[in-house]
Amino acid sequence: ERLFAGLERARILCVTRGRRTGVVALNELAHARHLARGGRERGPRLSAGEPVLVTRNDYERGLYNGDQGLVVLVREGHEAVRRVAVFRRGEGDFVAFPVETVEARLELAYAVTVHKAQGSEHDRVAVVLPDEPVPLLTRELLYTAVTRARKHVVLFGDEARLREGVERRVDRQSALGAKLR
Q: How many structural domains is the chain composed of?
């Protein structure tokens, strides 16, 4: 329970998956730092203590796109240690799966896209803006990112990117109104 409380306390949000300031790059950087803290240069793609995100539904296991969990080590018997991915299923209720059985559906989740973070809240949120103009950065996306924070939000990026995002509004073009008439 305490591990999940830590996971939910803070989150890094990115506008994009790709690019130098996107989810993939920041997760790789965080993973390398995690390994270095343990005195290692290399390690498994998903190491003990790392946050993970389900990227594809697995109906048999009850895992769904967007579910977040943690990789932990579990001792089996006197010697064997196994990596398992643990997911919360309600207050005080958890499910765990050997990492090797679900790894293809998981990615690191130190950083997630604003889109994936919709519906979640954290005490502290860091929003990383792209390092170059992207049409995806809009006023609405910034609003969504900032409102994920319950207490504190920090924006990282160029002032010009922030200004572009605040000034760009989503241009929804839909024929729904005409079809409803």
A: 1
Parent domain of 52: 2-167
Closest by Cα among 34, 42, 37, 36 to 70: 34
CA-CA distance, 180 to 75, in Å (whole number)?
Answer: 60
CA distance 137 to 133: 8
Distance CA 41, CA 107 (A): 19
Establish if 29 belongs to a structural domain.
yes
On whether residue 175 sits in a domain, the answer given is no
**Could you tell me if residue 8 is inside a domain?**
yes
Among candidate residues 119, 116, 121, the one with its CA nearest the CA of residue 152: 121
Phi, psi of 126 (to 5 degrees): -110, 125
Which pair of tokens denotes residue 112?
């997630």
Question: What six digits make up the tokens of 98?
Answer: 């050997």
Q: pLDDT tens digits for 132-171?
A: 999 999 999 999 999 999 999 999 999 999 999 999 888 7
What size, in residues, is the chain? 181
Over residues 79-92, the pLDDT tens digits come to 768 899 999 887 77
In the three-class reduction of DSSP (H, G, I as helix; E, B as strand; rest coil), residue 112 is classed as: strand
CATH number at residue 29: 2.30.30.940
